[in-house]
Each structure stands twice: as C-alpha cells, then as structure tokens.
Amino acid sequence: MQKPDYQKQLDEILKKIPEENKTNGRKQTLLLHACCAPCSSYVIEYLSQYFAITIYYYNPNIHPQAEYERRLAELKKFLMYFPLAIQHEVKLIVAEYNPEDYFVATNVRLETDLQTEAEKGERCRRCYEFRMKKAWQYACQNNFDWFTTTLSISPHKDADKINTIGRQLEADYIQTNDSFRHVFDASTKFLPSNFKKKGGYLRSTQLSAEYGLWRQDYCGCVFSQRSR
C-alpha cells in the first residue's frame, strides 16, 4: 500500500494560500509547534511567506531542564536574528514545562519495555500525540486558521504517525458534539507536512551553521539521551 505523499498535500494547499490571503485581506494564521531552533529554521523560511506564524514551544519531554532551557534560548536567539522571522513578525508562545506530564502521557514508568524502544516506536508516537494535542487545543482556543508541527523535519521522526495524529485531531475537533463546539471554534485546520522533503532537513543544517545554532545530539527525553 502506497504511503500518502504529505509534501504533495502541502504543496496543493500552499498553491491556494496567496489568493485566499489576498481575498481575505490578511495572512492566514498558523500555530507552529516547535521543538528547537534548528528544526524551526527551515520551516519558518519555507512558510513565513504564506502564513502569519506563531511558534508554540511545548516540550515537557525534554530532559534535563537545563537542556530544555538551552533549546529554548537557541530558539529565541534565532528569532531575534533571522531576517525572515523579523520581517514576518514571527511570534513565540512558551507553554508550561512540567516533565511529569510527559511520563503520564506516555505511561513509560509502567510500560517499561517502552523505555528501551528504538526511536519512531510507540513511546515516540505517544510523545508526538500529547505535545501536538496541547498545541492543537491552543490553536483552536485562539482561533488560528492552521496548525502544524516542525517534528516531521527530522529523519528520526515518523511523518506517517505525525500526520495521522494531526488528521485525527482535526477529525475529532469537527465532530458535531455541541459541548465540544462550545469550547472550541471550529475553524482550525491541520496542515500536513513532511518537512524533511525538498531538501528541508539539509537546509535546516545549513541555516544552523549560518546562524551558529547549537544542534542537540539526542531527541529530548531521558530515554533517547541514554541511547544516543
């Protein structure tokens, strides 16, 4: 069975955005969940011409806290100096950092086999899901037109799982349950992606070198740190 071409899906959406922006008299808004500056760099370069981007930094999985703070500092530094981020007024929202949320969401303490899993497994899928869900809820509550995540730029991340989660969030969101609609505005859409395509990952490494961005050597959680 042929896998979906998420880059092609994204290309089709982006073709329509400039005309829609012109008709609406404004750029459509995008909440971009981001894990670090290097992964954000290419995505901002790629999408800032189409969308008014707000980055949502929500990563309680990152261990230890000093690592979390360092990645956040690098992201802030990049946004201060990257011309396209300045030109297009890319904003940053920093959500709460509570590592316990990661352990509860993934259940890795009880399901100990998950602790030694290779990357892209079920532990990672659960981690994608709980971070994306948190960002998605923020996007819906604040009336963003679109939501996506930088996660798919990494060759170590499973784009199929990431996009499946995004599509499911969108599908659950537009259900006709009245109480659900009362909590969220029903306009936010999930933007499919596989940002590593079209040389995206390579470009992120080039931008990292150009702007002196520190590139971490493990995904983020304590288990990926142990297995690096």
Topology summary:
Layout: H1 6-24, E1 28-34, H2 37-47, E2 51-57, H3 65-81, H4 83-87, E3 91-94, H5 99-106, H6 122-141, E4 146-149, H7 159-173, H8 178-183, E5 189-190, H9 200-210, H10 222-227
Parallel strand pairs: 1-2, 1-4, 2-3, 4-5
Helix pairs in contact: 2-3, 2-9, 6-7
Can you list the strand order of the major beta sheet?
3-2-1-4-5
Question: Span between N and C termini?
Answer: 32 Å
Helix content: 40-55%
* Nearest-integer average pLDDT: 93
Structure, briefly:
With 228 residues, the chain is of the alpha/beta class.
Question: Can you tell me about this structure?
Answer:
By secondary structure, the protein is α/β, with parallel strands linked by helices. It is built from ten helices and five strands. It has helices at residues 6-24, 37-47, 65-81, 83-87, 99-106, 122-141, 159-173, 178-183, 200-210, 222-227; strands at 28-34, 51-57, 91-94, 146-149, 189-190. The chain has a five-stranded parallel sheet, sandwiched between helices. β1 (28-34), α2 and β2 (51-57) form a beta-alpha-beta unit. The longest helix has 20 residues, at 122-141. The relative contact order is 0.18. The model has no long low-confidence stretch (mean pLDDT 93).
Features:
228 residues, single chain, 5-stranded parallel sheet, alpha/beta
